[in-house]
Amino acid sequence: MMRKKVKLAYITNNAARKAMYKKRKMGLIKEVSELRTLCNVDACAIIYSPDDSQPEVYPSPLGAVRVLAKFKNMTEKKHIKKMRDQESFLQQCIAKVNEELENRRKKNREKEITKLLLKGLVAPSSLQDLSLPDLNGLSSLIDLYLKDIDQRMEKLSLGQTQEEDCKPPTVAVQVEAATTAECPSEFDDQHAGGGATAATGPGI
Amino acid sequence: MMRKKVKLAYITNNAARKAMYKKRKMGLIKEVSELRTLCNVDACAIIYSPDDSQPEVYPSPLGAVRVLAKFKNMTEKKHIKKMRDQESFLQQCIAKVNEELENRRKKNREKEITKLLLKGLVAPSSLQDLSLPDLNGLSSLIDLYLKDIDQRMEKLSLGQTQEEDCKPPTVAVQVEAATTAECPSEFDDQHAGGGATAATGPGI
DNA sequence: CCGTCTATCTATAACGG
DNA sequence: TCCGTTATAGATAGACG
Q1: More confident call, A176 vs B106
Q2: From CA A31, how far away is CA B39, in angstroms rounded?
Q3: Which nucleotides of D are covered by protein (CB under 7 A)?
Q4: N or C: which end of chain B has fewer CB within 10 A?
């Protein structure tokens, strides 16, 4: 009949609450004390009651400060480590993006060269005002085309023993141009504006 | 047969200690939680186990930091107040000591004057090379002596109707000199050296 | 290591002084 | 408000799977 099951809720009765607070506080501190003794751990408890002017600090203000300094130190270290981790992660991201950017630049250069080549095929006089690097790139590209053409012709000649022709090169150039045209210019720093892109997708 | 009464001491058995730690930690946290709920108090607990890499922080690292910031703030305020109190206490001490010092200086001056007076009585020519303040002090001291003599003689004449004599003054001077000679020169800043005195007594 | 079980121990709710 | 008492709810030591 005594000892009804205590309901876990705020005790509105003032005196009862204060009495409960005192009792439980004592029990709690005893618990902490026992834990410290039994398991040799650093533990502290800080309890503020609006009903009590003094906060209860176990094992002592000094001891509590010691424990919480340790805790603060550890969390700070963790925070720094986290920051470090994030930083290295971001640096990895940047490196990755930079690599991709370099790739895109290279492809873009090739595309430009291809455009010039096509233009030159249509109107040879337009090649007059090209810079030396452009001409170099153009020549190396043409070399690549020629190599590709040689390989294709070799395959064709092995399979069907056909005579040489001028058609394959032209087709190859057109195919290449079409392929590169499929690539969107998201990473094309040579032509895209300098504005930042706004990410609107969820969870980024 | 089960459940022997647990001895309140460090559990040397490793596994048993760890198991105990986990169980009691849980219980402790539950207690803190209930206290918070039942009495609406701000309470936190921080527990470090050497067996555990992570410290246990209730209600949460953030919550604990909040509570301990409150505590730190309060203790700092207290500390400042304590410092203030100590400061004012020390100032009071200093004032007291200064007062006593001034007293001692005064007595010392009187003693010096007495010495000069006695010297002068033995060899009157030695009064020649005294400074004006010394002479002034000497004269006022003589005035005091004379006053004292008058009073004593009055008492004597009232009690015994005796004739005036020159003996009492001399006796008075000797008594006074003897009395002042009993005072050790601990606070005698006029003659003591400037070295600090070493306190060797216990509990100071 | 981890959860579960149970006999036991401990803390404490309710009450009276 | 504080202390003491008492019966009980809740915590837990030790064992087991």
Answers
A1: B106
A2: 18
A3: 1-2, 6-15
A4: N
Interface of B with A (CB under 8 A): 6, 8-11, 17, 20-21, 24-25, 27-28, 31-32, 34-35, 37-51, 55, 57, 61, 64-65, 67-68, 70-72, 74-75
DSSP A127: G
Asked if residue B127 has pLDDT above 90, the reply is: no
Could you read off the pLDDT of A105-123 as tens digits, one per residue? 777 777 776 666 666 555 5
A29 DSSP assignment: H
- Residue A105: CB less than 7 A from any atom in strand D: no
**Distance measured from the CA of protein residue B49 to the C1' of nucleotide C6, in angstroms:** 29
DSSP conformation class of A142: H
- Residue A1: predicted pLDDT: 62
Q: What is the pTM of this model?
A: 0.47
A7 touches strand D (CB under 7 A): no
Q: What is the mean pLDDT of residues B101-110?
A: 78
Backbone angles phi, psi at A45, to 5 degrees: -140, 135
Q: Which of B42, B51, B57 is closest, CB to CB, to A48?
A: B42
Q: Strand, helix or coil at A144? A: helix
Q: Is the pLDDT of residue A184 over 60?
A: no
CB count within 10 Å of CB B71 equals 21
DSSP string, chain B: ---PPPPSS---SHHHHHHHHHHHHHHHHHHHHHHHHHH--EEEEEEE-TT-SSPEEES-HHHHHHHHHHHHHHHHHHHHHHHHHHHHHHHHHHHHHHHHHHHHHHHHHHHHHHHHHHHHHH-GGGGTT--HHHHHHHHHHHHHHHHHHHHHHHHHHHHH-PPP-SHHHHHHHHHHHHHHHTS-STT-TTTS-SPPPPP-STT-
Task: Tally A–B CB contacts below 8 A.
Answer: 130
Structure tokens at A170: 């032209």
CA distance B59 to chain A (A): 11
Distance between CA A31 and CA A38 in Å, rounded?
10
